[in-house]
Amino acid sequence: MVKFVYNGDEVKSTEKYPWIVSFMEKGNSTHKFCGGMLISEKFVITAAHCIDIEEKRPHKECFKENGDKECFRPPESIYVGLFYEKESTDVMAVEVKSIVPHPKYTPQTYVNDIALVELKEAIDCKGIAKPICIPYKNLNKEGQELTISGWGKYNDNEKSEQKLMEGKVHQVDESECLIMAGENRQIICAIGEKTNQSSCQGDSGSAIFHSLPVVEEIRRKTPTPEQFFALGVTSVGPPDCSPEDPDAYTDIFSYRKWIQSIVKNLPKSLNEKYMEENGKEEELGKKKGK
Question: How many CB atoms lie within 10 A of CB 170?
Answer without folding.
Answer: 16
